[in-house]
Design brief:
With 284 residues, this protein is an alpha/beta fold. The chain has 5 helices and 12 strands. The structure holds zinc ion. It comes from Hymenobacter sublimis.
Length: 284
Amino acid sequence: MRAPRFSRLAFLATLGTFSVFSCSKDQESAAVQPVASHQQDAKVEQAYPGQTGESQAGYLGGQPIEYRSINGELIYEGDIILTADQVAKSTGTARPESAGRTSGRWPSAVVYYTIDAALPNQARVTDAIAHWQANTPIRFVKRTTQANYVTFRVGSGCSSNIGMVGGRQYINLASGCTTGNNIHEIGHALGLFHEQTRNDRDTYVNILTQNIQSGYESNFSKYSALGYGGTDYGMLDFGSIMMYGSFSFSSNGQPTITKKDGSTFNIQRTGLSAGDKTGIDAMY
Ligand SMILES: [Zn+2]
């Protein structure tokens, strides 16, 4: 169980990225002010940028969800690719346990992987793997004959399945996907959802639906698999690499997510926060 102070420490660790905002303000206020020039520092991940597809309703782990059908794929929260097995059309056919959080763990915390030879800038993969291995018990091993594994390949955006789905699964990386975005996508492959989808998130944030781009509203829906999923421990972690920023998917330059006091926060795609590490430790 993560003590609340972990979340605070994780947040403080990211202050360096905000420090150019204003030398005259103290760091706390600098960290919570909107900084237009910083909104592009890190981009939120999308499987198919600019495409919203069609809205679909279903159940994931027994919880009602809205997802998008784009190019024949089932896309949840922008960058999570669900399998047909994971999505049920009714509660009656829903799987009895959370896909991606319970049955979707990687046995012995080992992820087998390959890198498609056509993927440019493969340091995005090796650096992201090195970061996960330096900070968590997860180990990544080059696949030989294993049945279940991840292939990193070129994609139209940045996307991943949620958890181990069985057989070959992909992490898709467009040219704009950074090492930080890939650390985030690996988080999905390990079973992490977005931090703002926690069922208790309304305690910590306001969702400003009127500022969300049309067709992306479901990226802000709540989902929690009842007790599993490491990042549901402790407080909502604004410094999580799995957290959206205040301006993610904004239609008008106004925030889509604020803290309860109305202040904004930046997206963090540098590395795992203390809370992310604690969550993964709890899961694996
Ligand atoms: Zn994501």
